[in-house]
Amino acid sequence: MGSVNTEAELVRKEGRYADKTTQQRRRKLATTFGTQVDAIMRRNLAYQKRNWGSNLCLVSLPAFMCLFLFLIQVLIASVLNTRFKCGCGCPTEYKNPDGSCQPGRKVCGPQYTDKLEQIAFCEFPHPPAWPAFLQVPDERFRAADWGSGGALEAGLPPSSCRVKPANFSNAESTSMEGNGTYPCFNTVLYTGQDRKIADRIGANLIPDVPLFTLQTAKQKQSVKLYLTDPPFNQASGPGSAPPGPAAPGLKPPPAAAPGPAARRNLRRADEVLPASVMRRVIQEAGNWEKDTGSSSGGGGGTGGNALGGMAGGFGNLANPNGPNATNFGVFNYTSTSYMIPAITYDLAYVPPGSSTFRGWSLYMEEALVASGNTGKVRSTTIYLVQPSCVKYKLLPYSFNVSFSGFNMTIRIECLVTLSLWRNATAAINEELYNGYYQANPNKVPNQYMSAYDFQNSSASLFRPYIWYNSSYARAWALGGASALIRFPRSMNLAANAYVKAMLNPNATIPLLYLKDFPRPQDSVGVDLATILGPLFYLWLLQLLYPVFTASLVYEKEKNLRMMMRMHGLKDGPYWLISYSYFTIMSIIFIAVFLIAGFIIQLKMFTGNPIGLQLLAYGVFIFTQISFSLLTSTVFNNSKLATIVCYFYVFGSGLLAQFLFRLFLESSTVSNALVIVLQLIPAFSIYHCLYDFATSAYDAAMMGTGGTLTWQSAQSTGFFTAVLILFIEALVFLLVGLYLDQVVAVGSGVRKHPLLGLHKLFKGKGKKGEGVRRSSSAMGRGGGRGRATGTSPMFWKRYVEALVDSLLHSDDPPSSDQHYSIICDHLRKVYPGRDGNKEKVAVRDLSVAVARGECFGMLGPNGAGKTTTLSMMMGFLKPSEGAAIIEGMGIVEDMDAIYSIMGVCPQHDLLWEQLTGREHLLFYGRLKNLRGQELKDAVDKSLKSVNLLAGGVGDKVSGQYSGGMKRRLSVAISLIGNPLVVYMDEPSTGLDPASRKLLWDVVKAAKKDRAIVLTTHSMEEAEALCDRLGIFVSGQFECIGNARQLTTRYGGTYVLTVTTPLEEEENIGRVVNSICPNAKRIYSLAGTQKFEMPMAEVEVADVFAAIASVREEMSIRAWGFTNTTLEDVFIKIAKTAQATPV
To answer: In what order do the strands lie in the sheet with 1087-1093?
Structure first.
């Protein structure tokens, strides 16, 4: 009777028995794609209507954040603009006698600026020219040999050079070529393919040039080179040649007071004078008519022009006994205006160096303008980079400069700089890397000035590769804007070295000066949207990602999505509405984001084409939604998903800002690596935001529109990032939908990884197809046998025979025995974890439930009742066996089964924000109810479970009591007249009146459908169920109606007697006299229960015996009953649990 059958064969055989009525009801319950879309859309609208406050806060968040950023920006700008702005004053010729300025005559400029940091914000129609400095390491960090005995090989001094020895002497200083304070010299590394050529070039890298003097014709020519307006002398005025240096032993002639034309001419001196001293120089021009005093370079310039002292100090260092020895540094004011050009010109040949950080512009040179506060002494050191310092007898040399409340000490030192050969580029790279303080075991910086690789340079080819310390760019400061790098002089050294070594040893390529472009007066433009830019907006744009992911995971975690699926909702409409809702929310979010940015006039928005912004943000919307869908497939806990998503948002933002940004800005990182990193969605949109921020920064700096256009975006990689986002949107969507079907964490039965394609590669009837069943149902063992004919094995074989006769008989069953549910050897095994054994939840279950029948499943907690229902409902996939629901298999046809069944789960699966009516409307639409029919069905359902009166049905379910929620769940399971209904403990938590009402509803509903019900209430089971099965340890121990079970498994009477404690033994003797085989099953505080076999006792004998001894033994109460269903349940459960499996 039991040939092996697959589920497909079972469906084919059972499908023949579906009558026309069944087929019509199936078609009526089946809904179209559009109907399901309409149902879930209306449900979503009702749900979001109740959450309008949360949605409003979510989409308005960009506006609040932009406004907050703007207010912070205004606050900071108001504070900074009081300090960082150009000074203003009144020229002398426009001052009134009372000291006030004539109306409209006040002007702003560096000559009226009291603070050095304000000069950069002044107008510079003729920017100053500065010497080109080398960036030399700080004297504390210059390269030294930290190994043992490796100083000679490496060419570096020992590490002890960083600490001044106790017996330090001039002789030691000279032998070490030190500067008199620290013997550590400056180092340049070089290499090349041809060492001979590289050595020739390297030997000329640091030119050995005598210190400049002020008595060369070149210096006179430098005046004409630097001054745009015709120079003047104190006698002839404008147009005359500048005076030359004084003859040996003579002082320069006194200066005459220049006229107004001369003053105007001197005010153009900002193109040659350092900005930090312009104010003093020009201010002093007004005193020339009164005072023609001089200043002393060595004395600090306290009584006259400080710049004269500075120039004089530079002019006589090399030759202390020269012509100006007795009065060096004494110059008249007129000649002073020519001294700084001379210094600049001479420093074109003698490379100066500085260890200070450069600023962000060339309007000031930090090497000449030391940092500090007003009233405090500022100091700076200028290094003369030379291969030897023996000839500079007076160095180090210091002099003071005072002007406008600033006291400056300028120190001039000669710095020995050696060029050292290294065998290969890799050796230089390793040595430079080890100079980083975290890359060497000593944790001490070991810095080099620069390094050169001359590669394949020859007499006809010059190909230098130059290393420099990019840390001085300080890209980490001020929103990532890079400071200027002192690189031009390093490049000039290489060019000069090549010319001298390979072409002409007397040739020189002077680097005359560096100067910035002219600029108008400006103030601090702190645009936080640009400074914080990419990081801030990346975080803001990704805030929807955790919200979307948590929303999807929440419905899966609470089994709400599975509840919808079990009532017929397919995946297509669900994802369509979810994706559409997320898209609408994202569009509103981005729209508010852009509108707020444009209204507030943030450069990040106004400085970039709106088309590029819409393109980037629009594509990112779909990528983020698809990414949320993909992420939701691997979580089944919404809180965990939210935490992980927020970690991703903030972590990816920080990595993008401080790691990926370096790759974008680096010229050595390949584009392939950048593209690979942009596979992370956050990095792709960060690339777009970075381009927007860069363009906005340029717009703010230049006072024009942004530099990012549709044409320039092609070269920045902007479109590549957008293309990656677009491709990822499609890939994430497809992969997410696929994983939702085959992984389905917490959302029901998983489908085959090939999604049905595997059927094409398998033949019919092969071993392993479908699910396995027994070859002989009647002869199958495995039950717990008993000697009687009413043992569980008997009932097990009875049910198997019933199922087999239905499945394998060629004769259809009678019309009044249509079986809606057939389970054929169902088995569910949970695999063992953490070293535990596997758990068998359901053992070889076979049962058939006819239409119009309510089948009850009784059993203790953990017996497997809910697991069995979950397999029938498609919530769990059986490990073995098959189940047929109205002619359709639960493995292959579960989507079709969902449309014809109703479910009342063990726990109420409801949306707290929806009313009872809205729940029923939604599930009614899924059962293809429409129009008036839907409204009538909803009212009828609410009335049947007592939720219509008093407007209870129109209140949100979050306000319902536990009993009201339970009644609503029962109404949901029955709406739409489904063919099969599963109820898992439907009366849990109900009061007696509500329970009785619920029973009436279930009795009325079972007329034309099959109902499977689980319960712990014996009263409920007797009242509702046509047949009962007692489920213990994963299998049925017995099946039958309540009367059959009590008759077959009871077979006893129960006598209950209550007496004083001293009469307990006497009552026991009386009972034994009535029935010798009676058993005492209970005894407590004088109350005893005795079980007597029905076959051995007469009811009349019991009544007579009790009546005869009632007065004698002081019997307070007694009762005589038949066996109840509860007694049968307890008896079978105890017996089954005591028997080993």
So the answer is: 1079-1084, 1087-1093, 1052-1058, 1117-1122
Q: How is 470-533 classified by DSSP, letter by letter? A: GGGG-TTSGGGPPPP---HHHHHHHHHHHIIIII-TT-------B----B---B----HHHHTH
Other beta carbons within 10 angstroms of residue 1100's beta carbon come to: 8
Cα–Cα distance measured from residue 780 to residue 772, given in angstroms and rounded to the nearest whole number = 14
Contact present, 925 and 1002 (Cβ < 8 Å): no
**Virtual torsion, Cα 1094, 1100, 1101, 1102, nearest 10 deg:** 70
Lowest mean pLDDT among 161-165, 257-261, 529-533, 906-910: 257-261
pTM metric for this prediction = 0.67
Let me know: does 527 contact 700? Beta carbons within 8 Å.
yes
- What's the gap between Cα 810 and its chain centre? 63
Q: Identify the DSSP state of 368.
A: T
CA dihedral 426, 429, 431, 433 (to 10 degrees): -140
Question: Are the C-beta atoms of residues 859 and 865 closer than 8 Å to each other?
Answer: yes
Taking each helix axis from N to C end, the angle separating 681-702 and 718-742, rounded to the nearest 10 degrees, works out to 160
Q: What pairing do the DSSP bridges indicate for beta strands 1079-1084 and 1052-1058?
A: unpaired
Pairing of strands 134-135, 406-421: unpaired
* Torsions phi, psi for 1035 (to 5 deg): -150, 160
Residue 544 has pLDDT above 50, yes or no: yes
DSSP 3-state of 308:
helix
Residue the block writes with tokens 């070295």:
497
Q: Please report, for residues 179, 213, 331, 396, 423, the alpha-carbon distance to residue 393 in angstroms, rounded to integers and kept in the order given.
A: 11, 15, 24, 8, 36
- Give the three-state DSSP class for 116: helix
Residue type, 869: L
Q: Residue 785: its pLDDT value, please?
A: 34
b or e along 971-1009 (b: 16 or more beta carbons within 10 Å of the residue's beta carbon)?
Answer: bbbbbbbbbbbbbbbbbbebeeebbeebbebbeebbeeb
What confidence tens digit (pLDDT) does each residue in 639-685 have? 999 999 999 999 999 999 989 988 888 878 888 999 999 999 999 99
Provide the token pair at 324: 């100006």
Range in 507-511, 831-835, 948-952, 1084-1088 with the lowest mean pLDDT? 831-835
CB count within 10 Å of CB 379 equals: 15
Give how far Cα 881 sits from Cα of 586, 825, 877, 878, 1032, Å.
47, 5, 10, 7, 19
Amino acid of residue 962: G
**Closest listed residue to residue 375, CA positions, set 404, 352, 396:** 404
Cβ–Cβ < 8 Å for 107, 282: no
With 0-12 / 13-18 / 19 or more C-beta atoms within 10 angstroms meaning exposed / middle / buried, residue 1048 is middle
CB 713 within 8 A of CB 544: no
Taking the C-alpha atoms of residue 580 and residue 41, their distance in angstroms, rounded to an integer, is 10
Q: What is the mean pLDDT of residues 1117-1137?
A: 76
Among 999, 1037, 997, 987, CA closest to 858 = 1037
Structure tokens that stand for 1030 in this block: 């007692």
Distance CA 430, CA 897 (A): 70
Between CA 408 and CA 728 the distance in angstroms is 60
pLDDT in tens, 217-247: 333 333 222 222 333 333 333 333 333 333 3
Q: What is the Cα 1020 distance to its own chain's centre?
A: 53
Taking alpha carbons only, the member of 189, 188, 159 closest to residue 445 is 159
- Cβ neighbours, 10 Å, residue 1117: 9
**Tens-place pLDDT, residues 49-88:** 888 888 898 888 999 888 888 888 788 777 777 677 787 8
Residue entry with tokens 């745009």? 228
* Rounded Cα distance, 688 and 1086, in Å: 86
Which of 856, 830, 857 lies closest to 841 in space, CA to CA? Answer: 830
